[in-house]
Design goal:
The chain is built from eleven helices and nine strands. The chain is of the alpha/beta class. α2 links the parallel β4 and β5. The N terminus is likely disordered.
């Protein structure tokens, strides 16, 4: 009988235990950092367990949809965690093995995984924002637009976000869309956009539909969170015109959207002077940093 009871207790512990981490949790000051397998890929959680109902940032890295990891942008994420956010850095399936919309599906799955563990990570599941750089911005915006009703995020931040892979493909063919982008980067944009979608647009109607679906603001509407994109005016990798078209389309679909143009020539716009502080201020306003969940809801 004692053996049976011990077996039941052991099985119960397995059933109620949280998902195992892929690495042992580490602490830096008040922040716990741990890697989790959320299903399709891994994510890194940076959170302070002393907080209650804290706002959360879902961070999606760039890398032309084929490079980078959940450990990309770690230093910036640590700074945002120190500001008062619980930060989750999400990896996703890469091209060429996985084609669109696998990357968006992974981001949506990660957001659902995080929300389901709101008490574990001490977050308010309604106060979530997405931050994505370059290809990660593209994935994040599309994921936000395709979240189910009742599960929308509050805000979406693009950091030199890709708007339209098809425009990158056209630029690689010599279309006069993005004159400040160098020839090598135009070719890189074309090649990586093709790997993302996995087929030629003229190949079939199904392929054409996938290119359209890969347009970041496709399906965005007024029910989605506010959108802001920071972009250097001299970005030679993902040109400013991508940000301009992104915001124009979002505004046309009823989204509160703004383009923040910076006088710089780097693709890593977050590293440009003052940008990280501006992004932090924007998110603080959108997510009610420093407010309780009740105060934040009362002010909306």
């Amino acid at each position: 009988m004692k053996k049976l009871l011990a077996l039941i207790v052991a099985m119960s512990a397995i059933l109620i235990a949280p998902s195992a981490t892929a690495s042992a949790p580490a602490r830096t000051g008040a922040t716990t950092t741990a890697t989790y397998d959320y299903g399709p890929a891994e994510l890194v959680a940076r959170y302070d367990a002393s907080r209650t109902g804290a706002p959360a940032i879902v961070w999606i890295h760039g890398g032309w949809w084929r490079t980078g990891s959940e450990n990309s942008d770690a230093a910036a994420q640590e700074r945002f965690a120190a500001r008062g956010y619980q930060v989750f850095s999400v990896d996703y399936r890469k091209t060429p093995e996985a084609v669109w919309p696998a990357q968006r599906q992974d981001a949506i799955a990660a957001i659902a995984w995080i929300r389901a563990r709101a008490s574990t990570f001490h977050i308010d599941p309604q106060r979530i924002a997405i931050v994505g750089g370059s290809a990660g911005g593209h994935i994040g915006i599309s994921a936000a637009a395709n979240l189910p009703a009742g599960s929308k995020v509050v805000a979406i931040v693009g950091l030199a976000a890709v708007n339209d892979p098809w425009a990158l493909w056209l630029a690689g063919q010599g279309a006069p869309y993005d004159p400040q982008t160098s020839g090598s980067m135009q070719t890189k944009g074309m090649d990586n956009s093709t790997l993302l979608v996995g087929c030629s647009r003229v190949e079939s109607e199904a392929c054409d539909a996938r290119w359209i679906d890969a347009w970041a603001p496709y399906r965005l509407d007024s029910s989605d969170g506010d959108l802001a994109d920071w972009h250097c005016d001299g970005d030679g990798t993902i040109p400013l015109s991508q940000g301009q078209r992104l915001i124009a389309r979002a505004q046309g679909q009823g989204v509160t959207a703004v383009l923040r143009v910076e006088n710089c020539d780097t693709h890593n716009v977050l590293a440009a002077p003052g940008v990280e502080a501006d992004v932090a201020d924007y998110l603080a306003h959108e997510l009610g940093l420093g407010q309780s969940s009740r105060q934040w809801r009362a002010g909306r």
